[in-house]
């Protein structure tokens, strides 16, 4: 087995709980600003999350809930305009400090950097959203800590397709066996697994009931000494939370271990 050389982080739900009070709220603000009487409540948004990508999610919503929508110009342009407005609202919310990192994220990233591991972001969200979250919640200079930021429309087929992970691995010039992925969702782990990666999962409210059969471990959150993690599936955590030593151990385990 190759030595662990890089950590690959998903963003939404993994680095921060951005969906319910961040993206969802930004979609709703964009709808209102465009004079649409659409509103995505918390539960409906949970269903819409099955569709990854904001533009794809809006298109799915129109197809299923407003199939007779009348709009001037073409639908692609309408969706793109609406989504650009959503991104602006989302970035404003992040800049105002609306969304903190999940517990343990900053510590894990610090440990990895001190150990000389390489870092990458692998997400379906828009690149500007990644920059805004890292800058506001992690560190003003933290974008540079990530050697590769694979995001948004860089590949046409979003998660659960493996493409974005394969793109990131190619950019890092590393084999999957030298990396480990951090995810929060079924779509995320399906993408990472299909790219040949071992994956560590921390669930959130939206993903708690999803299937994570391929995960090296499933936690309720990444954890801190003062805020221990609960192991939902997989081996026990010797120090009570996910530290880099445990990440290295999980990387050594055979894939699909029980
Ligand atoms: C999250 C997504 C994104 C966000 C919205 O994916 O599916 O579409 O919900 O962001 P990940 P955009 O967990 O892989 O980051 O509106 O910018 O697509
Ligand atoms: Mg995610």
Largest sheet: 7 strands, mixed
Bound molecules: xylulose-1,5-bisphosphate, magnesium ion
Give, in order, the helices and strands: EHHHHHEHEHEHEEEH
The low-confidence runs, each spanning 5 or more residues with pLDDT under 50, are none
Number of helices: 9
- Which structural class matches the secondary elements? alpha/beta
Share of residues in strands? 5-15%
**Largest sheet strand order:** 3-2-1-4-5-6-7
Q: List how many beta strands DSSP finds.
A: 7
Q: Helical residue percent? A: 40-55%
Report Rg. 18 Å
Outline type? globular
Average pLDDT, all residues: 96
Tell me the span between the first and last alpha carbons.
19 Å
Describe the structure.
With 258 residues, this protein is of the alpha/beta class. The chain contains 9 helices and 7 strands; from the N terminus they run E-H-H-H-H-H-E-H-E-H-E-H-E-E-E-H. The protein is globular. The two termini are 19 Å apart. The protein binds xylulose-1,5-bisphosphate and magnesium ion. The site of magnesium ion has 7 residues, from loops.
Topology:
Elements: E1 6-9, H1 19-33, H2 42-48, H3 54-65, H4 75-95, H5 105-114, E2 118-122, H6 127-138, E3 148-150, H7 163-172, E4 179-183, H8 186-194, E5 198-202, E6 217-219, E7 231-233, H9 244-252
Parallel strand pairs: 1-2, 1-4, 2-3, 4-5, 5-6
Antiparallel strand pairs: 6-7
Helix pairs in contact: 1-4, 3-4, 4-6
For this entry, give a set of tags.
alpha/beta, 7-stranded mixed beta sheet, 41% helix, globular, binds xylulose-1,5-bisphosphate, single chain, 7 strands, binds magnesium ion, 9 helices, 11% strand, 258 residues
């Amino acid at each position: 087995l190759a030595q662990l050389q890089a950590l690959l982080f998903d963003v939404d739900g993994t680095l921060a709980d951005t969906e319910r009070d961040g993206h969802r709220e930004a979609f709703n603000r964009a709808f209102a600003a465009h004079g649409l009487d659409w509103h995505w409540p918390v539960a409906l948004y949970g269903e819409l999350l099955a569709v990854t990508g904001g533009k794809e999610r809006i298109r799915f919503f129109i197809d299923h809930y407003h199939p007779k929508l009348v709009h001037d110009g073409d639908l692609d342009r309408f969706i793109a305009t609406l989504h650009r407005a959503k991104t602006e609202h989302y970035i404003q919310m992040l800049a105002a400090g609306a969304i903190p990192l999940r517990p343990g994220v900053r510590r894990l990233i610090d440990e990895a950097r001190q150990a000389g591991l390489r870092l990458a972001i692998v997400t379906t969200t828009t690149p500007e959203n990644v920059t805004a979250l890292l800058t506001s919640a992690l560190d003003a200079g933290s974008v540079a800590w990530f050697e590769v930021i694979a995001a948004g429309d860089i590949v046409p087929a979003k998660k659960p397709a493996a493409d974005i992970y394969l793109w990131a691995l190619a950019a890092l010039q590393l084999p999957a066996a030298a990396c480990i992925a951090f995810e929060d969702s079924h779509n995320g782990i399906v993408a990472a697994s299909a790219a040949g990666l071992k994956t560590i999962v921390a669930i959130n409210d939206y993903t708690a009931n999803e299937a994570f059969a391929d995960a090296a471990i499933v936690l309720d959150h990444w954890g801190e000494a003062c805020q221990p993690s609960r192991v939902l599936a997989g081996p026990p955590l010797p120090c009570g939370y996910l530290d880099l030593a445990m990440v290295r151990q999980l990387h050594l385990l055979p894939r699909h271990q029980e």
